[in-house]
Amino acid sequence: MTTRPSIFPVLVCSLVLWGCSATPVTPTGATGGTSGPKSSAGVTGSGSGSAGGSSSGSPTAGATGGSSGANRGGAASTGAGTGAASSGGNGGSTGGASACASGETLCGSVCVNVQSDPANCGTCGHACGGGTPFCSQGGCIATCPGTLVTCGGGCTNLASDPANCGQCGQACGAGQSCTSGQCVGGCAAGLTVCGLRCVALQASGANCGSCGNACGGSTPYCSGGTCVAACPGSLVTCQSSCTNLATDPANCGQCGQRCPQGTTCVSGQCQCGNGLVSCGGQGCFNLATDPANCGQCGQQCPQGSACSSGQCQCGSGLTSCGGGGGTGGCVDLFADPSNCGSCGQVCQQGQYCNLGNCVCLPGSATCGAGTCQTQISSDSQNCGGCGQACSGGQYCNDGGCAAACVGTACQGPNGSTLCVDLATDPANCGQCGQACAHNEVCVSGQCQSYAPAQNVGCSSCPCVNSNGQPVCDQLLGFNSCCSTSTYGPICVDAHSCP
Description:
mainly beta, 4-stranded antiparallel beta sheet, disordered N terminus
């Protein structure tokens, strides 16, 4: 199939597996100080941070903590001199949080998911385009796999992606997860929303005791919601926070290890509640009912189906045929030529599936030369019906004898002449005698695959989802939804209809 041009809009980014785009990093420095020099990311923070050493040194040694220390709404303090820095600039103490959320990478001055960002696919600056405009799992591809949807050039699952929950661009709030296309939950226990992040007010150096209250100067660390000079007892310093790695959901087991929404930190391990399972750090899910994780993590149910007791159940009018139909096994037995009337019942060449029965295509009949192999619409020896021959020199046009052929004259069986349209005739597609398969139609002289639109939950064309995107393309990789008098509404692997 032919892919669409790549488009790279800038979207709000969250913790996602696919479909994430870029979010500007907007650090805020502690007030009262002068602006520090620009960091390599081109973002300047300001504030009176504590220097790591003397004031001498190169300008980059005193780069601001804002470039990688600020964390979407958290404050960043800067240092002017050389010395060690916990993260951020090459000098001075930082605002106490990494620049990007877990699963994101700082590319220039924006946080991106290199697993799904088409402008930074796999690595910063590697843009997808041409015949492979979409990014999935760090690689540029031609089409999104399976039931994934294209959002801003990335491939995503609208049922579970918190950056595109239910529809492209619908981002969940801080700490929320996306379940069945709905944003649910909030920050994990012990965390509070500050700006766009979930933070621990008892330990956050950028939000100590309250959002925006940044520690610095002689009391650069936060412990128990108060800025202190040093972390007490057995607490561990994580950037500018004093924390207990055994219980802190923002630093569970190690600094920066944030527990997903719905989990708690127990003995340094993120744990889900009763009946829920952690799936790839994306949150806690009920494998018995979640259509994006049905029975096991990552097991996605096809369009129009639901998850019940860990099994994908087909929607109304569809039957599961274990992988047929291109949509995870849900097919319309009344119209699917590969599962006509029952799973695995394949119609023959020259037939289509009508109300669960394989019947001859219009213009075809069985006249002793094989099932549905006689073209009574164009055969001069069987014009309009078996044995109805036209007189010498006449042609058969649309089942009627005529002096001239409207179309192309092809040699038929038993010395007959066929008058056909090579652009649309499935028995003579593109050239005389070139027959299309049972699951193909003839489009502009090319045999193209098709499937009933009902297989993807559509009873008419156009076939689009709630976000206006074509479902045939998303679920089957087919470009067009076509309304036909013979097959009814079908998804066709072509840019035009038969």
